[in-house]
Amino acid sequence: MVGVICEGVGTCFHWWRGGSSLVALDEVTDPQNLGAIIRSAYFYGASGVVLCAKNSAPLSGVASKASAGSLELMELRSCENMTQFLTFSAENGWRVLGGSVSARAIPLNEVVPGAPKILVLGSEGTGLRPLVKRYCNLHSID
């Protein structure tokens, strides 16, 4: 089920209700980086990966090769509006953690276990977009 576009925010959210962790990619544009992140998400046991529908790397042969086969094993979804997806997820009990180098950041190993989590990673050049960053409850990578 690679590359399925969510018809609505709720559709995307309810599809993963049973999972405990997701990775959301905010405009990651390099296909090799996309594949490497999918590979790492699979290795660390993420339930799935959510991609921005626009301004993101395509699910191509390059991404598949970089994923070392995990692209075919990992559940992927594409959302039209990342901020709506994150807002809806937070309202339904998910902790939204944004990867950042900001002064507010805390080490990932200090995140208290519990509620299901979404780790949001930004683009290679600019990181998380300011609007997406505002919807993250915690900036988790320093």
UniProtKB/TrEMBL annotation:
Source taxon at top rank: Eukaryota
Keywords, in A-Z order: Methyltransferase, rRNA processing, S-adenosyl-L-methionine, Transferase
Pfam short name (any one): SpoU_methylase
Range of residues in the leader sequence: none
Example GO BP: rRNA processing
InterPro entries registered for this protein in UniProt: Alpha/beta_knot_MTases, MRM1, MRM1_MeTrfase_dom, SpoU_MeTrfase, tRNA_m1G_MTases_N
Ranges where the tRNA/rRNA methyltransferase SpoU type domain occurs: 22-137
Keyword Cytoplasm: no
GO molecular function, one term: methyltransferase activity
Similarity comment: Belongs to the class IV-like SAM-binding methyltransferase superfamily. RNA methyltransferase TrmH family.
Protein name (record): tRNA/rRNA methyltransferase (SpoU) family protein
Organism, as annotated: Forsythia ovata
Lineage summary: Eukaryota, Viridiplantae, Streptophyta, Embryophyta, Tracheophyta
